[in-house]
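G., the chain you wanted modeled:
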Amino acid sequence: NWAEILTHRESVMISGIESFEKYLVIYERELGLKKIRIENLENNNFHYVNFSEPVYTFNPTGNREFSTNFLRFQYNSLVTPSTIYDYDMKSKTWHIKKQQEIIGGYDPSEYISERIFVKSEDGTDVPVSIVYKKNIEKNGKNPLYLYGYGSYGISMDPTFFSYRLSLLNRGFIYAIAHIRGGGEMGKIWHENGKLLKKKNTFIDFISSAKYLIEKKYTSPEHLIAHGRSAGGILAGAIANMSPNLFKIILSDVPFVDVLNTMLDSSLPLTITEYEEWGDPNKKEFYDYIKSYSPYENVTNQKYPNMFFTAGFHDPRVGYWEACKFIAKLRAMKKDNNLLLLKINMGAGHKGYSNRYDELKEIALSYSFIFKIMNINE
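Predicted structure as tokens:
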């Protein structure tokens, strides 16, 4: 005796549900933002939890009590540190239980976040999350750190990281481009950024960068791009496609030798990866992958300052991919910009397991940026 409680909505992706005695909680994602819909099972009314910030994220913490009006979840944003809340589904009130302590002091009122939409080349609206200090002027002179991923349907939600304050307090703007290939806008967002549509990922990121320059958030002389792992394809592709758009490109454990790796079925992940990139043993996919694979598309042109890292014990992306890519760049590029490669001899795909070594890695990439940007304080 099935009863329809919630009808299908094309623009909404349901990521999970939790049931209570009097309530049904539905975790949704719409227009790139997570939402919590609460259905009252006694009167069939519903409401959404009202999040006050323009960009944020949350994660359910596990609600073990069935007969309760309280929903517990972990919330954070580009401005708000990780916070545990109990939300009263009856009175619609919030009760803070615990918040991450930021060593050294932190005043969230000094920072502001934004959420904008950028038109990509085909007219698709791409969401971009942004954070900066309130005293920043949009005059085109601000260093801007633009991060992107865009693969496997994974969402890069706007999350708080205390080490990011080191940039924001120096006048940086930090932005995340929620490009196609990820899952921010639902399953269709992933479908339109993989296989024979993979180039949408790179075009979306470049469009986002151009928009931020146009609106005076930054300029090509102050723009830093970063992509990690599969985001390394992004980093390498934009370096080949729009080298004059960026001052610095950073990439960690970068997947940059896509064609050769996907042709080697002896590697542990290759065959399962056909669903994301395509099988290059078929000519259609071979030609398409070859047209964007970073290693294959290095040319005799000027490139930005670049810093790549890799893990010697990485089972997902071989360290040799970064080595090959950097070697080819050194042989072919026509500039004197700084090009560095660091192999972490004791690390795998996720970097060092020791949290202090992880911070040292972040500090190293920041020092690279500060050197290029001539930031001495």
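The two ends are 68 Å apart (CA to CA).

Shout if anything looks off.
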